[in-house]
Amino acid sequence: MSASTPLSALELREAARNGWPVDTARLNRILAIDAQRGLLEVQAATAWHTIAAELRPGDARANVRTTMPTVGESVARNAAGPDGAPAVTHVASLTLVMPDGDLKRVSRNREPELFALVVGGQGL
User: How far apart are CA 70 and CA 109, in angstroms?
Assistant: First the structure.
């Protein structure tokens, strides 16, 4: 598989379970858009400008400036998002790859302590 191929959850699980290196830059996809509820599901290395371009195609405002280039970096550091508010305020839940390779969904209500640790210690 080439380095430019997007990374799947299955590949990520196997890499974690077997101790294989992972090119996290490949985790750069928008997985789902729920326009009705105003929700996106993205992978950690998805760039803010990619999201803006998807939501506002052809709009010059899609060329946003952010303190961190990707969603994951913004969440991990509790940095400001494109609107100036902490990126964490826009996160409903996260799916984590645990050291044993299991996937775990966390949120402010489900596993709140782990959620807080992942979002720069500011998630509660």
Answer: 25
Residue with tokens 């830059």: 25
Phi, psi of 17 (to 5 degrees): -65, -30
Alpha helices in the chain (DSSP H): 9-18, 48-55, 71-77, 112-118
Strand (E) or helix (H) holding 42 = strand 39-42
Residue range 66-118, pLDDT digits in tens:
778 888 888 888 887 767 788 788 888 888 888 888 888 888 889 888 888 88
- Yes or no: say if 79 and 65 are a contact pair by the CB < 8 Å rule: no
In contact, 80 and 67? CB cutoff 8 Å: yes
In the DSSP assignment, the letter for residue 37 is T
Whole-model pTM: value is 0.77
Q: Which amino acid is at 120?
A: G
DSSP three-state, residue 88: helix
